[in-house]
Amino acid sequence: MAQSSSKSRSAAPSKERQAKGSSVAGEIRIRGARQNNLRGVDVDLPRGSLVAITGLSGSGKSSLAFDTLFREGQRRFLETLSGYARQFLGGLSKPDVESIEGLSPAIAVDQKSVPRGTRSTVGTLTEITDHLRVLFARAGIAHCPNCQQPVRSRTPEALAQEILRIYEGQKVLLCAPLIRDRKGSHRALFEDLQKRGFVRVRVDEQVMRLEEVPELSRYQRHRIEVVVDRMIPRSDEPGRLRESLNTCLKHGEGDVLVVVGEEANLYSTERVCPGCGGDVPPLEPRLFSFNSPHGACGDCQGLGHVRRPSEKAVVKDPTLSIRKGALAVTKAKGGGLHFPRVDWAFLEKVGAAHGFDLDTPWRELTKQARQVLLEGAGEERFADVATWNGKRFKGQVEWERRFPGVLGALRRAGKKGTKRKTLERYLAEDVCDGCAGTRLMPAARAVRMDDWTLPQLLALPVDELTSTLQGLELSKRQQRIARDLLLEIERRTHFLLKVGLGYLTLERPADTLSGGEAQRIRLAAQLGAGLQGVLYVLDEPSIGLHARDHGRLLGALGDLRDGGNSVVVVEHDAATLRAADYLIDVGPGAGSHGGRIMACGTPAEVAAAETPTARMLRGEVHMPAPETRRQGSGKFLRIEGAEGNNLKGVDVDFPLGTLLAVTGVSGSGKSSLIQGTLRPAMQRELGREAPFPLPYRRLLGCEHIDDMVAISAAPIGRTTRSNPATYTKILGPIRDLFAALPESRMRGYDKSRFSFNTAGGRCEECQGGGAKFVELQFLAPVTVPCEVC
After folding, report:
1. Rounded to 5°, angle at Cα 542 from 541 and 545
2. Nearest Cα to Cα of residue 248 among 230, 264, 226
3. Mean pLDDT in the chain?
4. In sequence order, which residues have a C-beta less than 8 Å from that of residue 492 and are 6 or more positions away?
5. Which residues are registered as beta bridge partners of 46?
């Protein structure tokens, strides 16, 4: 069925779809949609179906799916919340549409949905890590991070003897922890403490009388301990200590805080190492979160890596000698070191003292010589001479000084904060020594279930995680606690396997994922949520997928639909279009030439129309291969020993002067090779600021490259005032032309007068935006065109 009118209506769901049965009856009726380039579109979408919206690029697919359907569905859901809640969530403007009926709460899975921060991982995106945190907090067995022995409880008398041994003769405060980092004003707690006869509390490390406690902010986290006693422990009078300690343990649930001056130490009767006597913090979910200060590694703050000067950052070419420029901080053929400030004569003295030559290639130097050059010679001093010959003063002075090494000088310069921009080039991301890349503090890494720790489970591929968890030998108590958590983890890992991501580990950072992997993770998270009656809108889910994985993707979309949801996908892929229950073809062209419904119905009905999409579905659109292939310039860009992520020492030749395509199944290492290795390595070779590339041995053929332009899929606009004319810099010559006109010169107008980004040229009513946001207080704000301009 094909209609060229913009008032086209959809047919009922196909007989095949009705035979399958839909868990959600009815239709979504759109009337008069004029968002962006849509021309008063009327269309009906069957609920509980997999609906594909296709058409030429720019024809209006996203305007219909995201700017109309999704925005209105989300806006209506937000309107059901209270006005108090909406002021924190923000609002959406109403799309330009007359009416939409039968709409469900909407969720968008687009190309920008997945957080790509350094703290996001596969486990946090799918919430599997959150379930594992609760599992270890409630069923894990705490071990000492130093001795690796299981912690045990101790008697109050043993704790009293330890406090006597450490603090005898000192003024101490014995406090019972009551509130451990929790929001609220806690006024009822203070009133209850006064009724019980307590006099002082310690609020956020400040000791004060109960009647002097100020009103605490209900939106901030607080730590509150009640002061049970102020005393000086004495071994000849232990009675008072025992009595006060018992009161602390009673109110602190087995914990007591001993405060001496500015220092506070927590002791417990429940978590004590039998070997070294150290205490372990209470097992809470936040202890296993690297995004919380309670669980994050103190050295890397939960990132798993640190930026610091390293050998791979300062060694530019190991095949060269130091004098020829092996180090990136030196100037070849004379000159001097940029960092550190050491002249060649002094460096030769250091080399002579430690048995190496400045003309020896770096890779042929001994390990000891490299250590001296990088980390310095310690406290050893070398003679140095300074001579000056000025107009008024002449002379020479001799002294001895230490050689700090290249890395030592860089670290010292970083602490001083000098030449920060220059130092960035020599910083590389190294695995944190404190946590070995696991991101967690020692106490969290030591907690075990059976013989497994949380970092060990997070390092497993997803396809091995379920069998490992099922094989854990747990006690009856642990089994009862873990039963529901393990079932939820198994359900979520099942959906990751279903979309073909079983090779990923839960600790894999989100910013290292390809676009296809990131979108499938978001899709698997929605599958694992188990929602029903929801409208899912997806933006080309087949992007970044190899043809091998299309079947898994379509199976996941089918599961989402069969769970009682409506699934709308914006797609170009022929296999996805043929698998859809209902198909909408938008066209006929792009921009002002599009915005109409050309055909809608089942894929077979749309294929009978005369549109570019119909011809593609009938197999009439072919893309013939070129008869001859371009040979290129005969020069190559060669990268050797690429080992980033899952690359295994790859050596690749890239012929220059040709169009190259790098392909492979999803997750095979394409992005790691090009975006993670070749691109930053080439940028650094060209002298630009760039992150340090993934590990590789060397890059050859750079002398054949004059410049490099990187084009990514990132959004091009940074502000709402960005448009194609400003981004492509076409507006610049146009402004120059208008500024050169006789009338402009007569009025004294320069080119800034014709810019909507600067005062004097822009409309001051809307600040150059062309539209104004009208706040409606209890409803979402509305965007209206500026009446002045």
Report:
1. 125
2. 226
3. 83
4. 126, 127, 128, 131, 524, 525, 528
5. 27
pLDDT over 90 (residue 31):
yes
Q: Which residue has the tokens 């962006």?
A: 36
Specify the pLDDT at position 111: 65
d(CA 279, CA 272): 5
Element (H, E) at 266: strand 263-268
Q: Which two tokens stand for residue 328?
A: 């990136």
Q: What's the one-letter identity of residue 605?
A: E
3-state secondary structure 289-323: CCCCCCCECCCCCCCCEEEEECHHHHECCCCCECC
Residue position matching structure tokens 């003897």 = 161
Q: Measure the CA–CA gap between 659 and 669, rounded to whole angstroms.
A: 20
Task: List, in order, residues 6 or more apart from 70 with CB less than 8 Å away.
Answer: 106, 108, 535, 537
Residues 6+ apart with CB under 8 A from 521: 114, 122, 125, 126, 496, 499, 501, 513
Q: Which of 3, 69, 124, 31 is nearest to 521 (CA)?
A: 124
Partners of 654 in beta bridges: 637
Instruction: Name the token pair of 495.
Output: 């959906």
Q: Rounded to whole angstroms, how far apart are CA atoms 478 and 481?
A: 5
| Nearest Cα residue to 731 out of 770, 703, 757 | 757
From 113, 126, 114, 134, select the one nearest 493 (Cα to Cα).
Answer: 126
Task: Report residue 23 as tokens.
Answer: 């868990």
Q: In the predicted model, what is the mean pLDDT of residues 595-618? A: 91
Name the pLDDT band for 162 (thresholds 50, 70, 90): confident
